[in-house]
């Protein structure tokens, strides 16, 4: 049966070809393809380079540029942003600054860290840091608490002499975060993380499902404002260690209850009372 | 080949435009299929001063040529690249003629590397530095298509064609086209030139770089061409109204507009019950502004009641000031609302954007500053019923309280059952 052999061989090759392809397509949401950390930075919110937490991104730029990166931050994380700028050999005093904005482009306060720093004339580099507040699952719309979603990081020289404008500088940024655990677990939950353009994406997906291949082809090339996601996906917001605390509290209370009962009730029926009386 | 000969003959702008016209049909078919291909126009200064030998021991022109050759080799396939010269053809002293001297050396379209390189090789430093007119023409070269557009200006001197301020020209260009960015590179710059080139760059959200070495030039131009190839969401142009009633209705998307100093812009968004409106706005400082500024975004009902606002203020050097807001519309308004809208229908939320930028008296106020607005209407959040997640507890105090309460309950239960046994025995 030549035909069956051909068909099965074809199916096998197809399967083999499709296997890695399918595996490849899943992590495409992660900002950097493969393991390479990004080596450039965007110049606006729209063009911000997406970086992962825990990976050092670099960029060659000019003094005076506004450099933008974006990173994901999820519920319960307290992100720390660190930046190092290597300055050219000769320069006057320069003031550098990092600003962090959330997915709604609202400026986020730094709890501590040297957010702005002036490098004296001729210094080799300047180091900046910003420790954000803990990201919550929910907040009232009137508050600007950090919420899970995209965060933008802007690095720029806020004070630079005209003579130093355009000089080559090398920037290095890294975002790390500390897990704050259940202490920061609040009630309520956003339906979608605070990612700009998330509604557009959803609409596109729906169109795709409805209109089929044509729309799919179109969306293949289309860009999205932010396609960022943490390595292990957004948390559902359901789990926190409060469950463990509460449950173990209940167990301890039950044990204490039994103890208390045993203490007052005595060791059981009085000995001199015969059974079944 | 025809085109190459012509530019070598130096017939000037008219013929170059003609050449572009002739060359275009060849690339037209490709252009139609890729209307969103990114376009880059390299604008190079070929003025007399490019003869100076101060970049790594060779002349500025030679450095630029070397860099161009490397850039042409590295240009990504999908990028439509063009080259325009300024001051390449007229060696005379007449300012009027000298300031019109800009020509298209290689038309914006699919790149033929050999042809482009041959064209670049013919360049000899000649004339004036008409940056303003060259930018205007370069913007025309990039006309059409929906992809990102970028002009890379390489110059070694400030504009010699006053009163047309290239900085104003750049701003006009940015106001005209969507997503056009001008990046500038200054070869061995002086202070005045730095100021002018960085002004041009900042007017369009581009970058300015000083170049002292050939490899810096190559690396930077490559970086800029690659940046153009990155897919970017193109915003939709929209014009906000002066009051809510006339405002354009927006759906989820990315929009741009222009806003003058102190002007207010209104937009409308429909939000159904159970949905959440997310809006963020940024106003870019594309000209010299006073160091203290702010932006205010308010979500207002049709009747003028403020629902929520986002505000941001800043001072010092900046490219943009931005803020945002969230408005989750409750599932059912019940009787709690103002009775302003039908029970089930979508509510129209008016978004009002104002800025408090100001500038010194000499600075032009129109066209307004670029404004970018993101609107997302998503499902509403699950409201918090408690401060803690699901109202659960945590910590040693909780455990202590539970243990004590459990113990007391046990003791009480023990007493009760003892008392019951005692009662049963007496009976």
Structural class of the helices, strands and pairings of chain B?
Answer: alpha/beta
For the largest beta sheet of chain B, what order do the strands appear in spatially? Answer: 3-2-1-4-5-6
Largest sheet of chain A: 6 strands, mixed
CATH architecture of the largest domain in chain B: 3-Layer(aba) Sandwich
Number of domains of chain B: 2
Quickly name the level 1 CATH class of the domain at 34-188 in chain A.
Mainly Beta
Oligomer: heterodimer
**What is the terminal separation of chain A in angstroms?**
88 Å
| Helix and strand pattern of chain A | HEEEEEEEEEEHHH
The CATH topology of the domain at 34-188 in chain A: Jelly Rolls
Summary of the model, kept short:
Chain A has 277 residues and is an alpha+beta fold. Chain A is built from 4 helices and 10 strands.
Question: Explain this structure to me?
Answer:
Chain A is α+β, with helices and mostly antiparallel strands. Chain A is built from four helices and ten strands. In chain A, strand 5 (94-101) and strand 6 (107-108) form a beta hairpin. Helix content of chain B is 33%, strand content 28%. Chain B contains ten helices and 16 strands. Chain B has helices at residues 2-9, 13-33, 60-74, 95-98, 113-121, 131-141, 166-176, 191-203, 214-229, 396-426, and strands spanning 39-45, 80-86, 102-109, 149-155, 180-187, 208-211, 236-237, 249-250, 253-259, 264-271, 275-284, 292-301, 306-315, 320-328, 347-355, 369-379. In chain B, the strands form three sheets. A six-stranded mixed β-sheet of chain B has the order 3-2-1-4-5-6, sandwiched between helices. Chain B has a five-stranded mixed β-sheet with strand order 7-9-16-11-14, with no helix packed on it. Chain B has a five-stranded mixed β-sheet with strand order 8-10-15-12-13, with no helix packed on it. In chain B, helix 3 links the parallel strand 1 and strand 2 (80-86). In chain B, helix 3 (60-74) packs parallel to helix 9, helix 6 packs parallel to helix 7 (166-176) and helix 7 runs parallel beside helix 8. Residues 1-33 and 335-342 of chain B have low confidence and may be disordered. Classes of the chains: A alpha+beta (277), B alpha/beta (427). At the A-B interface, strand 2, strand 9, helix 2 and helix 4 of A face helix 8, strand 6, helix 9, strand 11 and strand 13 of B.
């Amino acid at each position: 049966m030549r035909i069956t052999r051909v068909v099965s061989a074809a199916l096998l090759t197809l399967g083999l070809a499709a296997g890695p392809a399918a595996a490849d397509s899943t992590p495409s949401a992660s900002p950097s393809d493969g393991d390479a950390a990004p080596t450039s930075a965007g110049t606006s919110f729209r063009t911000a380079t997406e970086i992962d937490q825990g990976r050092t991104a670099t960029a060659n730029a000019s003094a005076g540029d506004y450099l933008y990166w974006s990173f994901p931050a999820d519920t319960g994380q307290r992100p720390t942003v660190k930046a190092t700028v290597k300055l050219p050999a000769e320069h006057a005093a320069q003031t550098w600054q990092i600003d962090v904005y959330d997915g709604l482009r609202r400026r986020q306060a730094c709890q501590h860290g040297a957010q702005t720093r002036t490098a004296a004339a001729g210094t080799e580099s300047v180091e900046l840091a910003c420790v954000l507040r803990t990201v919550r699952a929910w907040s009232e719309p009137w508050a600007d608490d950090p919420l899970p979603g995209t965060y933008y990081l802007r690095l720029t020289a806020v004070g630079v002499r005209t003579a130093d404008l355009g000089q080559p500088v090398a920037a290095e940024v890294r975002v790390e975060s500390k897990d704050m655990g259940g202490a920061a677990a609040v009630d309520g939950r956003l339906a979608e993380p605070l990612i700009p353009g998330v509604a557009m994406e959803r609409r596109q997906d729906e169109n795709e499902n409805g209109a089929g291949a044509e729309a799919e082809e179109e969306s293949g090339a289309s860009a999205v404002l932010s396609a960022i996601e943490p390595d292990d996906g957004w948390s559902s917001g359901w789990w926190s260690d409060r469950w463990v605390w509460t449950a173990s509290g209940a167990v301890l209370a039950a044990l204490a209850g039994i103890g208390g009962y045993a203490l007052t009730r005595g060791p059981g029926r009085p000995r001199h009372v015969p059974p079944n009386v | 080949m025809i085109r190459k000969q012509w530019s070598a003959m130096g017939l000037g702008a008219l013929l170059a435009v003609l050449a572009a016209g002739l060359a275009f049909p060849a690339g037209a078919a490709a252009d139609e299929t890729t209307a969103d291909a990114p376009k880059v126009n390299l604008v190079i200064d070929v003025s007399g001063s490019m003869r100076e030998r101060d970049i790594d021991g060779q002349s500025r022109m030679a450095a630029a040529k070397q860099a161009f050759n490397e850039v042409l080799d590295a240009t990504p396939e999908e990028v439509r690249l063009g080259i325009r010269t300024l001051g390449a053809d007229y060696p005379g002293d007449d300012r009027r003629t000298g300031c019109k001297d800009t020509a298209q050396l290689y038309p914006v379209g699919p790149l033929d590397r050999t042809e482009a390189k041959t064209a670049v090789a013919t360049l000899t430093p000649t004339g004036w530095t008409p940056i303003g007119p060259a930018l205007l023409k370069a913007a025309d070269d990039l006309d059409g298509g929906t992809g990102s557009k970028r002009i890379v200006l390489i110059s070694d001197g400030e504009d010699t064609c006053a009163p047309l301020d290239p900085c104003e020209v750049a701003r006009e260009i940015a106001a005209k086209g969507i997503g056009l960015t001008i990046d500038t590179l200054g070869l061995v710059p002086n202070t005045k030139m730095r100021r002018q080139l960085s002004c041009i760059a900042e007017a369009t959200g581009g970058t300015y770089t000083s170049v002292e070495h050939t490899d810096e030039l190559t690396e930077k131009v490559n970086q800029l061409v690659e940046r153009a190839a990155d897919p970017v969401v193109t915003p939709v142009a929209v014009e906000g109204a002066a009051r809510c009633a006339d405002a354009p209705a927006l759906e989820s998307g990315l929009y741009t507009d222009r806003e003058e100093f102190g002007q207010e812009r209104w937009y409308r968004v429909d939000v159904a019950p159970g949905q959440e409106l997310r809006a963020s706005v940024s106003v870019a400082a594309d000209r010299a502004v006073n160091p203290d500024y702010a932006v205010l975004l308010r979500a207002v009902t049709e009747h003028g009641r403020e629902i929520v606002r986002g505000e941001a203020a800043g001072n010092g050097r900046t490219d943009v000031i931005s803020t945002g807001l969230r408005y989750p519309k409750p599932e059912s308004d019940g009787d709690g609302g103002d009775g302003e809208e039908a029970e089930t229908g979508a509510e129209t939320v008016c978004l009002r954007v104002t800025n408090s930028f100001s500038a010194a008296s000499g600075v032009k106020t129109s066209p307004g500053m670029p404004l970018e607005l993101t609107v997302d209407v998503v499902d509403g959040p699950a409201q918090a019923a408690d401060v803690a997640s699901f109202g659960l507890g945590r910590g040693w105090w909780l455990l202590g309280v539970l243990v004590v309460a459990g113990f007391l309950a046990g003791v009480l239960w023990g007493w009760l059952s003892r008392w019951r046994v005692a009662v049963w025995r007496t009976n």
